[in-house]
UniProtKB/TrEMBL annotation:
Belongs to the DedA family. It is found in: Cell membrane. It is a multi-pass membrane protein. Residues 37-161 form the VTT domain. The chain crosses the membrane at residues 14-36, 56-75, 144-164, 176-198, 218-234, 240-260, 267-286, 298-318, 330-349, 361-380, 387-409, 415-436. Its main location: membrane. GO terms for cellular component: plasma membrane. Pfam families: VTT_dom. This is DedA family protein. It comes from Micromonospora zingiberis. Keywords: Cell membrane, Membrane, Transmembrane, Transmembrane helix.
Length: 463
């Protein structure tokens, strides 16, 4: 690597500008970003400004203009060939309803999605084309894209400049961080899709059993022993059958939580965040004072996960008592009277996952995050928006406060704190998305859907 840097430094500056600009523009213009993201090029440009081979001001200007030009070409290609793609055989297989949903999604994301995509490899290559194909006006696309380009290009070049001789290490870590961001985006998509599936199937065990019943081995067993299973279910009675179904649902939640915890630990481990755990711990240790430690220790002791779980249970029981009747499926239980159940499952899972060698989960951070989010969600469903904003602001402040307090006391690492907070927030988001999905289904279905659903989503939607 050092030999490559040395050889690049001896090239004429104008040639470096041209090649770097072509690479940055081509990342989106000709989709080379799907193979070779442009961060490495920008970091190299920043390093060359550190050595004096290039000047910082002109380098920033050239790279920004190159990125904007590449995005403009990609946007134009999407605008020009998007309708032709829809009319093609492949576009017909996609279906008009899916195209309509894609258009609605891009319209809903708007400029903020264009800005955010600039910081995610692969996404910044595809989003300009999607925006052009979806018919987004260029006057709306351009300002948000320019803001994303300026921050992304400027940040990457400045990091390369400040890294100096550590360019090789920073380049490797930034590549890992980009991969971690991609994985987190994928995890967010999984959370949304999982929540929507749960909202459409509020009794997931029965839904999975119905799916399994269509498999050939299960169909054979049902044909031979279906009468026996029916007689056993009659023998159990409706109460025990309900309890067994709910217990199976909780077991399913436990397995899902284990998978989510493992995935988040892997993401944080490979992001390179654990490498700065020691430096962050030393920074906090240098600022400890006896009085501050005493106050911080008191806050950590008071805001325990068990106390918050009990508070969630009380709030959930009060709300469920006020809004009867409620249906006895898994989603209704964990969204009303049993809102504490997912928190208990999460506490057990984080205890099992707390012994990692690189990323050590903090059970308190995960449970406090999930509990405060659950409380804010339960209380804000019936509240007006100023109260809802205040509730969620308080929840975020509590999460940040406990995370910072544990870092200050040396009870958690930075990587473990991030992993635990992501786990707690993602875990709650699944049920929020599920409830919102079913609430929309109940509202769209009218009175008949409400009668079948038992519990009207409007009770808790805060509408």
């Amino acid at each position: 690597m050092h030999e490559l840097l040395s050889s690049v430094q001896h090239l004429p500056p104008w040639l470096i500008y041209v090649v770097a600009a072509l690479v940055v523009a081509g990342e989106t213009a000709v989709i080379v970003g799907l193979v070779a993201p442009g961060e490495a090029t920008l970091l190299l440009v920043g390093f060359l400004t550190y050595t004096g081979t290039l000047r910082l001001g002109p380098a920033l200007l050239v790279m920004v203009l190159a990125a904007v030009a590449g995005d403009a070409v990609a946007f134009r290609a999407g605008r020009r060939y998007g309708p032709r793609l829809r009319a093609s055989r492949w576009g017909a297989r996609v279906g008009p309803h899916r195209w309509a949903r894609a258009d609605a999604m891009v319209g809903r994301m708007g400029g903020r999605g264009v800005f955010t995509a600039r910081w995610v490899a692969f996404a910044r290559t595809l989003v300009p084309r999607l925006a052009g194909a979806a018919g987004m006006p260029y006057r709306r696309f351009a300002p948000w894209n320019l803001a994303g380009v300026v921050t992304w290009v400027g940040g990457s070049v400045l990091v390369g400049n400040l890294a100096g001789e550590s360019y090789d290490t920073v380049s490797r870590l930034l590549g890992q961080a980009t991969g971690a961001v991609l994985a987190l985006v994928a995890a967010l998509v999984v959370v949304v899709l999982g929540g929507r599936w749960l909202g459409r199937n509020p009794d997931p065990v029965r839904a999975l059993l119905a799916w399994a019943a269509r498999l050939p081995p299960v169909r054979w067993l049902s044909a031979r022993y279906g009468l026996l299973f029916f007689l056993l279910s009659l023998r159990l009675g409706p109460t025990w059958a309900l309890l067994a179904n709910l217990a199976a649902g909780v077991g399913l939640l436990f397995l899902v939580a284990l998978v989510v915890a493992g995935a988040l630990r892997a993401v944080v481990r490979h992001s390179g965040l654990a490498l700065v755990d020691g430096a962050i711990a030393s920074w906090f240790a240098a600022r400890r004072t006896p009085d501050a430690v005493e106050v911080t220790q008191l806050a950590v002791t008071v805001l325990r996960g068990s106390a918050l779980i009990m508070l969630v249970a009380v709030v959930a029981v009060v709300q469920a008592w006020r809004h009867r009747p409620w249906r006895a499926d898994l989603l209704s239980v964990v969204g009303t009277i049993g809102a504490f159940v997912p928190l208990v499952v999460l506490a057990v899972v984080t205890e099992l996952a707390a012994g990692g060698r690189v990323v050590q989960f903090s059970t308190q951070n995960a449970v406090v995050t999930a509990s405060l989010c659950m409380l804010a969600w339960l209380l804000s469903r019936e509240a007006r928006w100023p109260v809802a904003v205040a509730l969620w602001t308080t929840a975020v402040a509590g999460v940040v406060g406990i995370g910072g307090a544990r870092l200050y006391l040396g009870l958690s690492t930075a990587s473990g704190t991030v992993a635990a907070v992501l786990l707690g927030a993602g875990w709650t988001a699944v049920f929020m998305v599920a409830w919102a999905t079913r609430d929309r289904a109940v509202a769209a279905g009218g009175p008949s859907m409400r009668r079948r659903g038992g519990l009207s989503g409007g009770h808790f939607a805060g509408r």
